[in-house]
Amino acid sequence: MTSVQSEDNSSLIYGDDFDDDDESIDLYESQTTATCSMGDTACHKLNSLVSQESEFDFDEDQFSGNESDDELLVDPMTLSKKALDDDKGGSSLKYECLTTQDILDRMLKRVHHLQPVFSIPSEDILVLMQRYDWNEERLLEEWTEKMDELLVEAGINTSNPGDKLNITMRGIKHRSDFNCFICCEVRSTETFSLECGHEYCIECYRRYISDRLNEGNVITCMDCALALKNEDIDAIMGTPSSARLMDSSIKSFIQKHNRNYKWCPYADCKCIIHLNDTSYLQEYTRLHCSRFVTCKFSHIFCFGCGYGMHAPADCNVTMAWVKKARKESENLNWVLSHTKECPKCSVNIEKNGGCNHMVCSSCKYEFCWICSGEWGPHGRSFFQCTMYKNDDEKQKASVENSKKALKRYTFYYRVFNEHEVSAKLDWKLGQTVGQKVKAMQEKMGVSWIEGQFLAESLQILNEGRTVLKWSFAVAFYSDASHNLTKIFVDNQMLLSNAVEQLSELLQIKNPETTMKRKSEFYNKAGYVRNRTRALIECGRDLLRKCICKPVD
Amino acid sequence: MSRAKRIMKEMQAVKDDPAAKINLEFVTESDIHHLKGSFLGPPGTPYDGGLFIVDIEVPMEYPFKPPKMKFDTKVYHPNVSSVTGAICLDILKNAWSPVITLKSALISLQALLQSPEPNDPQDAEVAQHYLRDKDSFNKTAALWTKLYASANGKDSEKDVDEAKLYGIDPALVEHFEALGFAKPKIVEVLRRLGIKTLDSTDDATDDKITDELLRSS
């Protein structure tokens, strides 16, 4: 117990203070780096130089309101040469949340800038840009090299625009008894042709274009390389269809630059995160950290692996865990039944709230959802169900190892899953809390700002649960005999306990008393936050010291 | 409906141009979407003197989607599968345009026989042969043309030396036959390893082939 407490205190120190000033970072550095003592001024300077304060600031500027993410997710210790060399400081970590429209607007702006250089119509430059996958540098390079060839290759009409023939050729015309080569129908219809004079009926053209709108390439005349401009496409289709072509062109651009651009993995989220300089990601990987990014709709995901928030696990652990989960899930279906029998009276119980403190509605027996044990000891001292008790230890060595391994995995997977389910239920809880806050505001005249502590607590609860959830993946891959793993498990227990308490506190029954217990909310939420940070730090130490190694 | 009209018109266009020496006909009268096309091997190539028959399936979306074409006649060519006759040609895939006709597609196939694209192969073994030893490739391709594509009826295929059929040096096969391996096995292994000839001093490769032969027998 005492050893746990001391670990607790030290992690609280750096958990709390690391972003206050440079000095506290030094303090933390001196704890972890043996070569750097507190009094060493040279070292002090170096540390102040490479501190990532400015890099936090940037993200906070962009996504105010999510400041907690960055505190949680960006490791204050990711010091590297890169940051030293970088004059602008934060630019390597800079990311932005965009939509395809934002990217297109940016491209159009660039087209606008290029117009004086090229001195051809903007529409033609747009075609060129599409052809060069929006790569301005390559386009300019080839433009200076072989201007005329480039125009011909890209299918841009180079003949004199004043030419009378061209004007009469181009565009939509109405013809009687037109014999279309494509559909071989003879009738009076509208037709379309570019300057080349390859004229086909408008219906064939529509069919031809609509097949190609989603391919993201420049659409050309059916019979030659001459390119259709966006205005041509819209005129033929009769609707603003070129927007779809632009959209698919941008999408293929993102696909080709998927190192810098990542789609938000959340369902139906159309956000794209753009990270300008990915060289820094390697540094993250080396330090077992992950670059978590937040889209406009507050979806947090990892830029490295595309999964959701997974601290303290790094991308390798996450991927190994997910892969394993997929492989094993069939074996484990039986474990993952959503109902449980009350351990006392065997009534089937479905969990409908986020808290793991269960009270059987039938026999009033209080038990823990995770371990099915009596709740009593959980509340007072330890949350014992985070610790996997190796029951087989006492048995003879002849017990099959594989069976043991599966049993061990089953335990961790189940706990992981329970926390995931709890997190979902917490989200539901959040909605009811929202309603309750509203009710409070109306009934008791509580101002919006005063009710915010509930929303904040809820967010902290969510973060705590996610970190707790992934910590079981880290624990699974960790060497159980190592002392640091034991400390990690202790940290898990503390966070688990804190999360459960906060979750219970949020099961608001009476809004009036809730307001009176406001300080209790603050205390509990602050504690959960500190415990979350401590667990993340401890998990990273496990990874850094190779005590946690993902294996299949 | 326009699809039927278009196909009929294309048939007529082929008939109106006998100088192109291209033939196009329906497989059965009842189905206008399944055709057979044929053209002559381009002169000055190992395919000269052959008549190449192509199976054509016209999809519902024709002419907005390309027709499905494959060689019925066996062809020894880097961009044609020597087993299935599948063709690797851009205009039959993403470079298709509605203005391309069955006739122009067949002419493109003729041009493909004239100028192979070994860097974008359909049949890797054949392409390798083409890149390593052009003369030997030409001999094999000419042999295949004579065997499978000759206009004056089918020669009996049974008489053909298997080694020759894949451009393998007969002396090499004899060398391994002398060691007691069966000829079909030797040809199979040599094809798999992509070896057509062997320098008598190259013991390492010789050992490799022997190993492979021992393993597969």
TrEMBL record, chain A:
Its EC number is 2.3.2.31. One of its GO terms (biological process) is protein ubiquitination. GO terms for molecular function: ubiquitin protein ligase activity; zinc ion binding. The keyword Oxidoreductase does not apply. Keywords: Metal-binding, Repeat, Transferase, Ubl conjugation pathway, Zinc, Zinc-finger. The keyword Zinc applies. It catalyses: [E2 ubiquitin-conjugating enzyme]-S-ubiquitinyl-L-cysteine + [acceptor protein]-L-lysine = [E2 ubiquitin-conjugating enzyme]-L-cysteine + [acceptor protein]-N(6)-ubiquitinyl-L-lysine. Signal peptide: none annotated. PROSITE patterns: TRIAD, ZF_RING_1, ZF_RING_2. Residues 176-389, 180-224 form the RING-type domain. It is an enzyme of class 2 (transferase). SUPFAM superfamilies: RING/U-box. InterPro entries: ARIH1-like_UBL, E3_UB_ligase_RBR, IBR_dom, TRIAD_supradom, Znf_C3HC4_RING-type, Znf_RING, Znf_RING/FYVE/PHD, Znf_RING_CS. It holds the Pfam family IBR_1. This is RBR-type E3 ubiquitin transferase. The lineage of its organism: Eukaryota, Fungi, Dikarya, Ascomycota, Saccharomycotina.
TrEMBL record, chain B:
The active site is at residue 88. It is an enzyme of class 2 (transferase). GO terms for biological process: ERAD pathway; ubiquitin-dependent protein catabolic process; vesicle organization. Residues 2-150 form the UBC core domain. Its EC number is 2.3.2.23. It comes from the Eukaryota. One of its GO terms (molecular function) is proteasome binding. Belongs to the ubiquitin-conjugating enzyme family. This is Ubiquitin-conjugating enzyme E2 1. The gene is TDEL0F04990.
